[in-house]
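User: Predict the complex with magnesium ion.
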Amino acid sequence: MTTTRVLRVDPLQPDPTALAEAAEVLLRGGLVAFPTETVYGLGAAALDRQAVRGIFAAKERPATDPVIVHLPDLTGLHQLTDDPPPGLDALAAAFWPGPLTLIVRRGPGVPAEVTAGGDTVAVRVPAHPVARALLLAANVPVAAPSANRFSRPSPTCAEHVLTDLDGRIDLIIDGGPTQVGVESTIVDLTRHPPQVLRPGGVAVEALRGLLPDLEMVARFGAESQAAPAPGQFVRHYAPATPLHVFEGAPATGRLALFRLAESLLAQGNRIGLLAFAEDLGALPAGLFEWIEPLGPESDPSFAAQRLYAALRTLDAAGLDVLFARLPEPVGLGLALRDRLIRAADGKVHRA
Ligand code: TXA
Ligand code: MG
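Assistant: Here is the predicted structure with magnesium ion placed in the model:
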């Protein structure tokens, strides 16, 4: 058991002394959780295989799930790959720093622990000022998956990290709640055409401007264009409380949701709801015991920011069943759908 220290910093102008201390922990092979613009990451020096093993132990993450390597800018890229793909520079110029992860060929210096033995490596340049300052202070590539215990929702504030990893990591830099709230979009540039492996903070529509032949390889629902390779996707977070997600136009999806909720309520179930603002006015009285508001469906950025905290809250509320309506697969809505459908174990009610 390690004592986990928490250093609070200003999210926009983090104290250099705190960051120097955190960088030192990383360079000694320790584990530091830090805020990125998407979710908190659990960092270790990426080229130090022993340190990277520590990430997997702390998270109880299966060694078969590779981790993303974070850089402050493109100058360190040569440490990770010998042949950056042709499209990378333009994508980097347009979207880095930011919530985009690119899969490239793995260079010889990258330990197998980072890539789960594979011949590709995931690279990201995060935009959060604290993440950037930490990466610059450490001056080494930093491997960082989300800083949650495996099978828990990704952490969007330091308290979530502490709940999951207290006593298992050296340090948490608390830079307040994260802005985007869902993880980065992952694009595999080693495939032709390039493929979205995970929708996230950068909208797929925006990427298509530079990658017109970009393919979606979603595992669930209508956005799926190809079957995923077996074993490619690890089981993801699912709340202990069963979650039902509903597809369909807002009005019909809502009706189907209410109908099932009514019958479950009649059987004595206590029901929680993730609700868009558009749904709140239509709620029958007394149907839902607990409601977590997600803001307007028309602007899903608030829903993305709130989603994981809302799921943690609902899951801790002692309810029998949770309900959510899926937003349209547009912009950030695509990432929201992906996370909700995974949390529902892949099962979707279609109205
Ligand atoms: O926003 C984010 O991406 C956050 C912050 C901390 O940067 N990180 C994050 O990491 O979400 P993680 O480990 O929770 O998710 C990384 C995903 C995993 O699903 C993993 O399978 C995939 O990236 N991945 C990593 N390396 C890969 C590779 N070489 N090929 C394909 N997928 C890869
Ligand atoms: Mg994760």
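The mean pLDDT is 94.
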